[in-house]
Amino acid sequence: MQKPTFFRSTALALAAAFLCPSALLAAPDAAALRDAALKDEIAWDIVEGLTTEIGPRLAATPKEAQARDWAVAKLRSLGFANVRIETYRMPSWERGREEARVVVPFDQPLAVTALGNSGSTGPDGLKAEIAYFRTLADLEAAPQGSLKGKIAFVSHAMKASQDGSGYAPYGQVRRIGPSIAAAKGAAGIVIRSIGTDSHRLPHTGSTRFEPGVAPIPAAALSIPDAENLERMLKRGRPVRLRLLLTPRFPGEQESGNVIAEVPGSDPGAGIILVAGHLDSWDLGTGAIDDAAGIAIVAAAAKRIMDAGRPRRTIRILWAGAEEVGAYGGQAYFAAHGHEKHVLVMESDFGADRVWRAHYRLPAAARPVRDRIASALADLGIVSSALPARGGADIEPLVNAGISVIDLQQDGTRYFDLHHSADDTLDKIDPAQLAQNVAAWTAVLSIAANAKEILH
Amino acid sequence: MQKPTFFRSTALALAAAFLCPSALLAAPDAAALRDAALKDEIAWDIVEGLTTEIGPRLAATPKEAQARDWAVAKLRSLGFANVRIETYRMPSWERGREEARVVVPFDQPLAVTALGNSGSTGPDGLKAEIAYFRTLADLEAAPQGSLKGKIAFVSHAMKASQDGSGYAPYGQVRRIGPSIAAAKGAAGIVIRSIGTDSHRLPHTGSTRFEPGVAPIPAAALSIPDAENLERMLKRGRPVRLRLLLTPRFPGEQESGNVIAEVPGSDPGAGIILVAGHLDSWDLGTGAIDDAAGIAIVAAAAKRIMDAGRPRRTIRILWAGAEEVGAYGGQAYFAAHGHEKHVLVMESDFGADRVWRAHYRLPAAARPVRDRIASALADLGIVSSALPARGGADIEPLVNAGISVIDLQQDGTRYFDLHHSADDTLDKIDPAQLAQNVAAWTAVLSIAANAKEILH
Ligand SMILES: [Zn+2]
Ligand SMILES: [Zn+2]
Ligand SMILES: [Zn+2]
Ligand SMILES: [Zn+2]
Asked: Peptidase M28 domain spans which residues (chains A, B) (predicted)?
């Protein structure tokens, strides 16, 4: 039933757009702002600046603090109001040395990186036999204690998709695999990177050990290295690995959100929150994850601001510490969850073009949705029948039931780069980045000025 | 004048191929052997084995020695005659730690790798201001002494091309840039990698210091890092770099060539030498450089051997120590240069398809050339008007005037991978590798059995 409904409503919206201009008061402005944004250079300037002048900015480190100061200066220079840092404290983790080497039956170094929250091997490293599992299910099926003294290796391979739908299931190897292996007595675990490229650059990301399970050394191999290790294992002889990982847990440290606003003319009309995250993993310069996202939302908000005061306040959240547990989004909700948010949106899936929009709006906001869908259609963006779900930094607000719209980016090559050293500025296509700004500008222009309720 | 001659001769060859079968006694066999080789699995097996069981095999190290033993076992198991190692001694160089970090005005790590023959910064590293040069010509133009205490940075960018023609001129930055910078008093030098990719994987390769010029620390930045450094420099403030490189020169060590043969039926007809190199750089597993090359020549030679004894001896040379100065090729020439070589060929440009053939043959071998060109045309391979030039391992024989044929591979993506950690098995397309074997099989079948002289 969803598809017919979807197509009928889209057809109605398109008919309205072409036949009933009087119903679409905000549309002409939105269209003009949208098209001007296709030449946007603000977002590029932000991404270029943050990746060049700050670079890697792991949560709760001095680099993330430098990034906050940089962000405040940048947002003030763009003319936003109420630019501020809101700090909070959080547990921290820091990468140390990382080396892996097959020592039996062959002798080869492997490209490896520790997962966030990995335990340490100690400075002398760990030498152990590999226990191989093709899938997470195979690891889960291993008998209790059967991994004693071994290094588990799980090679489950994710494939690329436009909607990134492989990440939720395959990413579980990273998220819960280490805790499962530890609970079964493993001395350590290496996984095939949760990625879709073929480069010697492993992909990091957080893992989480269940309460009562002591962290073991946990690392990702680059995909060519994981495949090499698989080939070694296929020869049928025991394979021994030397693993050296020396991450540290420096305890509670300071992190923070950066907030800025385009004040609305009608204080009762509520806040539209647009978010991305300022922190990044430490391996790359965090260009696609998530300098692009924070740049897109700020560039679109600036375009609305420069076009005249909108009805609703647009609040920009450049959240801290998303990568390591979404601490910034939780701190924001604790401080601001009681305020009147009427729409929340997040950009955190790279810098390639928006191809699809998801909505979660009340029935009374249907005309707004239709105007937005019409404005997006001109950019080649289709409406999805799936509900909008937001992102990690706005998750508490989404869970509280606030309206949400997702502008979903093309994720076909996102996991080639995600959480690896290869997340750098050169991967961003300025034209696709500007298309994002245009889509966000269209949505914000319509939503911030709509007479109808959004929530 | 070359083009008309070329087209006319090709037309004659094609006419001969279709109209005069009696003139082409060897051709039917060559075509059948060629087409069977399109299903070749021997070459893949060699590349897969060497990259999985040995991996990196830097010249004059224990890993190169392991590779020689592996090679002898593999060539014997394939049934070749006179399989042997011929050792020689040579100066050696070993990579140490390598780190680079911008410390002023920003703070970012850069992906870096030492060039072969680089000097050491010592264990404490070197901190110095960058002196930026867009091109090698700009570095050459710098006044004597103007680099005193600085780290030179040259960012000359090579572009990809099918024939790899960018490597000779742009590679000069790596080959002679460090010696030029050292002579002008530089404390160190970093260059943009001689590569065509956009990954955080720097490309190594040998540099050479002129006699009387003491080696300085010399390294390549990955291309995204070189571009990041350029963006920092464009901001107009002094940029300071911390560079740590601790390579060593362990003195004279043993290296060696591996040789195998398909004995010919007519000892007076001379030797056809087919070569590639067994050593690799230490960053990748040396799949495209040059496991592919040694695999292609051996797979083709085995196919000729299995089809019955050829008239001429085919000698396989898996040379040692090509990457660091072609010591293996020189040692081979010193030991065997006096023997009757009638044709020399080398495969050392990756594993992508052969698209063009170059020839340097005497006029009396024109019918052989025409039969070869005809057999290659079926594989989509065109004849070049440029003379064949061989490769580094056969260069002394080429310089001595021996006949040579080049089967030139498509190099469009070769320098994405070349001399970087990304030179691994996953980059090889089995179908293109087999096309190489088919081309070599066709050439060897015709040349080894030709009644005409080749030289
Ligand atoms: Zn993110
Ligand atoms: Zn992320
Ligand atoms: Zn080579
Ligand atoms: Zn090479």
From this structure: 257-441
